[in-house]
Amino acid sequence: LVTAALWQRRVPGAILYGIVVATLAAVLSHAAVYAGPAGLRAFPGLDGSPVRLPYWPRDLAFALDLRGALRVAYLGPLMTFVFVGIFDTAGTLIGLSSRGGFLDERGELPRVNRAFLADALATSVGALFGTSATTCYLESAAGIAEGGRSGLTAAVVAVGFLAALFLWPLCGAVPGPATAPALIIVGALMIGHARHIEWDRIEDALPALLTIVLMPLTFSIATGVSLGIIAHVALAVTTRGPRSVPPVLLVLGA
């Protein structure tokens, strides 16, 4: 509510202010919103300096076994991760690009191969260093909603993440529930694009509905996108014939 009120009044940084207000409320009220066992989930306070050296993932960094990963037994999980990565990235890129106004008149993202290449390289390098996947995240919509449109936004965010490596005790004071409202606000802004769907055509409406609803219900962008594609391909094939569907979509649907 704080974020929405500030957003409506066009206050710059409304999303950030909402996170700060929620964090202060959690800290001052000792609300049980932090990780840990029951009774210890209130903010315990900073244990020492808020600035410390970052932890190095000794057991994860450069711990590769490429030969073992390419064994036949792992082909199934490997292909699963590949397709989940493709669907997840595609859904996120199109959603963010739509919000940012980067799609062309046909609803396509120009030079999308470069975006996928950057995402793949970042994911690979991140895994090499033992971090979680450094792929494109839907949370970037918060920056787009604030007006971010260029690579300068990404560079500034990168500097912020670099500082967070040393300010991790202070960042730990922010509970998960404090950042959730930011995503709700972003969702409210992005759902407006659903008005462009031809809801009176079941061939468009059903796949769109499945995609939109199943993303939150399955906690996965990839699952929502994949089920939407399957429904779209199935309806197109049964109503207009297989020749009406591009070959790539037929393969993905299968």
Let me know the number of strands: 0
Helical percent range? 55-70%
Q: What best-fitting shape do the alpha-carbon axes yield?
A: globular
Low-confidence stretches: none
Number of helices: 12
CA-atom Rg in angstroms? 21 Å
Summarize this structure briefly:
By secondary structure, the protein is mostly helical. Helices cover 60% and strands 0% of the residues.
Provide keyphrases for this structure.
single chain, 254 residues, mainly alpha, 12 helices, globular
Structure characterization notes:
- The protein is built from twelve helices and no strands.
- The chain is mainly α.
- Helix 1 (2-8) runs antiparallel to helix 2 (14-29).
- The mean pLDDT is 87.
Q: What is the fold's blueprint, element by element?
A:
Blueprint: H1 2-8, H2 14-29, H3 66-69, H4 75-100, H5 112-128, H6 140-145, H7 151-164, H8 168-171, H9 176-190, H10 202-218, H11 221-240, H12 247-253
Helix pairs in contact: 1-2, 2-9, 4-11, 10-11, 11-12
